[in-house]
Each structure stands twice: as structure tokens, then as C-alpha cells.
């Protein structure tokens, strides 16, 4: 009888001597049914429990991995902004406390491209960051794909001003109604320049509402509302601001630029 064979093998494995019929048995005799069926039924239950545990673990782990990735990219973005602010500080230290100059009469925040006197590589970026713009001047978030023509999967230009950099240079005072272009050197007439206000962000992760799509840290060019923005301040802090705490500060009827609400 097969069940008898299994029983004997098990008994000998656990160190019992092969005994006669008088040896006490730990499990009921064959009347209940073959041992083999009992064992595989138990294994199926075990399997189901394991599958259930794994399902729970996966459902907990996968979203938290996604969340961790979002936070890691956000932190890297902040680190880059911090580096840019430090370079701006070095520039200001060399130019009597004035930050890179903005020329022109609009609130238009700076957009940068290759060539001419607005080429960032020819200004303080090369001098103080000692690196190519690709390493520093691009947010590592989804915006990267929309702004950097060298990025794999580049989504194409959204206008010539909307590429080559994904950070925004805010240095202006809204009350002054004054914005200046960045030039390789400060404007000769320093009296027309304005000192940066510590209240306002100096650099930020570009956030634009083009009235049909957003361009932001986590929005390459989508109708989805951005989660928020990184910005770096003259007091040395760099922080993330949620979308609800941001406000548009310029509008040419086609697009709004955003920055953290300042009171
Ligand atoms: Zn960013």
C-alpha cells in the first residue's frame, strides 16, 4: 500500500526505528484518506497565502518606488538650481553685488539660446560653473525632453525661445516693472541696474502655462497641471513649491510664467 510506504519513510527520516504495529502513530491511519492528497491540499493553501502576501507587497512597493523616483529627480533639480545660484553669487561678488544684468523693458523672464551675447556658455555659466550647459542648465525632470535638443526623445521646439535651457532667471522686481537681458558683463551704467531682492526667487525650474499646455518640471508639454516648482532664493535656500502656492507674474496673452507666491 503506497501510504504505508510514505509513512515508514517519514518515520525513519525522523529517527524512529522501524517498529511493529504497536508503535504509536502521530497521524490518523489510512482511514482518513491518502496522505499524499492531504499534503498537496496544504501546499495549495500555502501557495495562495504566498501569492496573496506577494500581491500585497507589490502593491505597497511599486507606488512607493515611483514616489521615491519623483522625489529623487526633484532633489537633483534642486541641487542644480543651488549650483546655479552659487555661481550667480560668485558673479555678484565680482561685480559689486549686482547679479547678471537684464536689459530690455519687459517682464519676460530670461530664455537662453546658443550664439550671440546671450549664450550662457559665454557668460557666467562657463566662468563660474566650469561646465557645459547640458550638465547644469537643464532640469532633470520631464521638462528636459521638451527643452534640450540634445536629449534623447526630444519633443521638438515650442518656439525658439523655449529650448536650450529649462531653468528660468527671475532677477527682477515686479514693483519696478523692470527686466534686463543677461549680458556677458554688467551694463556699464550700474545706476540703471537693480539689486536683487532676497524675497524673490533668483532662479527657478521653468513653469509656463501656454494656455494649451504646460511646460514644467514634471510636464514636458502636456495639458496636465504641474505638481509644483523648484526655486532658489538669494538667502541661500532652495525649495520645492506646490502648484497651489504659485502665481503667474507675466502674461502676453499667449502664456503665463509662474513663480512661488511672494507676500
Ligand atoms: Zn526641475
Structure description:
The chain has one domain. The chain is 33% helix and 15% strand. It contains 5 helices and 9 strands; from the N terminus they run H-H-H-H-H-E-E-E-E-E-E-E-E-E. A 5-stranded antiparallel beta sheet has the order 5-4-3-9-8. A 4-stranded antiparallel beta sheet has the order 1-2-6-7, with helices on one face. It is elongated.
Q: In whole angstroms, how far apart are the ends?
A: 88 Å
* Bound ions, cofactors and other small molecules, one mention each: zinc ion
Nearest-integer average pLDDT:
70
Helix content: 25-40%
**What does the largest sheet look like?**
5 strands, antiparallel
Number of strand elements = 9
Task: Tell me the domain tally.
Answer: 1
The secondary structure category is: alpha+beta
Task: Enumerate the strands of the largest sheet in spatial order, edge to edge or round the barrel.
Answer: 5-4-3-9-8
Low-confidence stretches: 1-20, 103-109, 111-119, 177-193
Query: Count of DSSP helices?
Result: 5
Tell me the series of helices and strands, N- to C-terminal.
HHHHHEEEEEEEEE
CA radius of gyration is: 33 Å
Q: Work out the strand percent.
A: 5-15%
Shape: elongated
Task: Put the structure in a nutshell.
This protein is an alpha+beta fold.
Features:
263 residues, alpha+beta, 5-stranded antiparallel sheet, 5 helices, elongated, binds zinc ion
Amino acid at each position: 500500500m503506497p501510504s504505508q510506504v510514505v509513512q515508514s519513510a517519514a518515520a525513519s527520516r525522523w529517527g524512529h526505528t522501524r517498529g511493529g504495529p504497536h508503535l504509536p502513530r502521530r497521524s490518523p491511519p489510512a482511514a482518513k484518506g491518502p496522505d499524499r492528497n492531504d499534503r498537496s491540499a496544504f501546499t495549495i493553501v500555502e501557495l495562495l497565502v504566498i501569492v496573496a502576501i506577494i500581491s500585497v507587497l507589490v502593491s505597497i512597493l511599486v507606488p512607493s518606488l515611483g514616489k521615491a523616483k519623483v522625489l529623487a529627480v526633484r532633489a537633483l533639480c534642486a541641487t542644480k538650481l543651488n549650483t546655479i545660484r552659487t555661481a550667480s553669487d560668485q558673479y555678484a561678488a565680482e561685480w559689486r553685488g549686482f547679479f547678471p544684468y537684464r536689459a530690455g523693458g519687459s517682464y519676460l523672464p530670461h530664455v537662453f539660446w546658443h550664439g550671440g551675447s546671450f549664450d550662457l556658455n559665454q557668460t557666467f555659466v562657463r566662468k563660474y560653473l566650469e561646465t557645459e550647459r547640458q550638465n547644469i542648465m537643464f532640469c532633470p525632470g520631464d521638462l528636459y525632453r521638451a527643452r534640450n535638443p540634445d536629449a534623447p526623445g526630444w519633443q521638438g521646439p515650442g518656439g525658439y525661445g523655449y529650448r536650450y535651457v529649462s531653468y528660468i532667471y527671475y532677477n527682477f522686481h515686479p514693483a519696478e516693472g523692470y527686466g534686463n537681458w543677461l549680458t556677458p558683463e554688467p551694463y556699464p551704467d550700474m545706476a540703471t541696474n537693480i539689486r536683487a531682492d532676497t524675497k524673490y526667487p533668483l532662479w527657478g525650474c521653468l513653469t509656463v502655462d501656454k494656455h494649451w499646455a504646460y511646460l514644467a518640471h514634471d510636464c514636458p508639454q502636456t495639458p496636465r497641471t504641474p505638481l509644483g516648482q523648484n526655486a532658489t532664493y538669494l538667502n541661500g535656500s532652495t525649495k520645492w513649491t506646490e502648484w497651489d502656492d504659485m502665481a503667474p507674474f507675466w502674461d502676453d496673452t499667449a502664456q503665463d510664467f509662474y513663480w512661488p507666491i511672494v507676500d
